[in-house]
Specification:
- This protein is mainly α and 89 residues long.
- It has one domain.
- Helix content is 76%, strand content 0%.
- Helix 1 packs antiparallel against helix 3.
- The chain is elongated.
């Protein structure tokens, strides 16, 4: 587990760090929402299926894009979770 320790009496610096973390959280949330919309559009066209069920039913490039969006969303969610851990302290 990563541990971040910020010991500083300089409130300006601490506010800047918190502002950066809050901004990064907002960016990640927006990116996740955009990806969820893309995935939702795909699933409304083809149904809520797994990758194996979609082979042969959809264009290969669309399938790759859908799988890539899911993978990207999962990575962004992991980053977001780590940032929320930082803000608890």
């Amino acid at each position: 587990m990563t541990k971040v320790i910020a010991e500083n009496n300089d409130t300006w610096t601490l506010k800047k760090i918190r502002t950066w973390v809050d901004l990064e959280i907002a960016i990640l949330q927006k990116e996740i929402a955009n990806i969820q919309n893309k995935i939702g559009e795909f699933e409304s066209r083809y149904g809520n299926l797994d990758g194996d069920s979609l082979y042969g039913r959809v264009d290969d490039m669309e399938l790759l894009e859908w799988e890539g969006e899911i993978e990207t969303m999962n990575r962004l969610r992991e980053k977001l979770a780590r940032l929320f851990i930082i803000t608890r302290f």
